[in-house]
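name: query_chain
kind: protein
chains: 1
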Amino acid sequence: MPSTRATGRGSFYLPGLFLSLGALLSTVCQAGAAPALNGLLRLETGSALQIEVLRDDYQFAENPAYRVNYLPPFAFLYVQSENSLIPVRRGSIPGNHPSWEYMLEPGQIWQDESNPGLRSASLPFTLREYNADCMHNGILSFSIDGENSVSEAQISITSETCMYFKFNIRGSLPASFETGELPQAATIIEQFKDQQRARLIRKPIAALASKYKSVELSAFTGAGNVPEDDISTFGFVIDDVHYRGKCQTRGPNYRFCDDINLPSYSLAKTLMAGLAAMRLEKLYPGSSNAFIGDYVPQCRKHGNWSDVTFSQALNMLTGNYGSVDGRSDEGSVATDQQFFFKSTHADKVAYSCNAWPRSAPPGSQWVYHTTDTYILGSAMNALLREKQGADADIYTNLVLPLWKDLNLSPAIAVIRRTYDEDRQPFAGFGISLTPDNIARLATALNRGSFADQLDRHMFNSAMGRLPEPQGSFPADDKYYYSNGFWAYNAQTLLGCKVPVMVPFMSGYGGINVVMMPNDTVYYIFSDSGKFAFTDVIVQSHKIRSMCPTIKTTRNT
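structure:
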């Protein structure tokens, strides 16, 4: 690649760049397109950055081996399109760092108004926890002059979606930019523009109250139930307009809120495991009644998976558990150490298959286990490969094609997998989302846009659209769990005469995505450990009633 190499070592340094980032970004729309800057951005990441630890449940920061205040090696290609700098590689990027993997999203580049020969750039990035879903969102910024000499890159991380590890990181690192022609640049730019055009119309959340005077906006920020400081972002969709909250940090609001990376955690039990099972049943009727033991050899040792069906695993009804008390099994030290902390399929599946004794007949007792979803993913993969060949994959072949036409962010195509030759998708967590992605995915699910490609009965049961509520009853006789989806019966809340089932997705730490039967969607990503959405249901009902119309017959 013909190139000009520019480096920040020994070149000029702009001490005001980091502190005045907000002011610099305000000139983006005024400055016009800068000369194309295509090539390789490199940071020298051997130096520690300043870290302020705010919460550290597992004492990660106390162990020097985890290197939590060191960035992983950074050398990535970027392509410029007008004022946007687009990373060539998207999604979670594995490396050799013990704690972090990068996720990169498009940033901005602009001419400095006070110095026409100087360009400034600001790029969003995410540190995603190795082998897990925690995401810490940051910004790196630098300037480059007419001779392609680069300032040091300023690094700032002041927000996360991670309940157990919170910190601020700041510092600077030497940077260089090796310019050159990239053959794939035109394709990347066109795909980027297509994805931008596919997004919903976006308006600030305050505009919702301007249009619908009766709405109380406090409901959308947790109504006091979810601490505002712990909310990454939230939004509400009605009539294809995305009313979006800000992306809060412990400093200024996150400038790249449209592209902030958000973890799915257990939303994946819906978006991945649930939809994959419905698609598999559509393609191969009867697959939901196949037995786990027939497709996962590691689960045959004790015989307690030989009579558990795919459907029972999907619905948390395996009969294999240690305790029915809340999340006792799920939150145990053993599950952390032997499942969540393990990185290979052999280790994860061995624990998942053998951790719990047979304690009830399959189908009779609901107990929440991410390990059950992992086993289900392994079983579905095995069945799919039996049907379609050794390279078939449930995420690539069953799930991603469902939403191909939505033209979502490229990051969603990369799911968490084991770090070995098996590359087994986690199934129960590990999808990367953005606000627009989840807004459009939830809207499509709510409207049944994928229903023709799924087993109709399984989908209708999951969405609460059968004549009678279906699924397990995990709590309060108001909450249901069916085929990887949750549902809440809002009949009493709204004063309706018949059940009003509101399907929703739920994720660890305080993540909810609510799909209401009046064609509205609400999402909130937080890490407070608290969940609240019933106040939003009430506000949405004010806008458009959720109570079904009851037909009456008049005798004549």
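note: The first strand starts at residue 4 and ends at 7.
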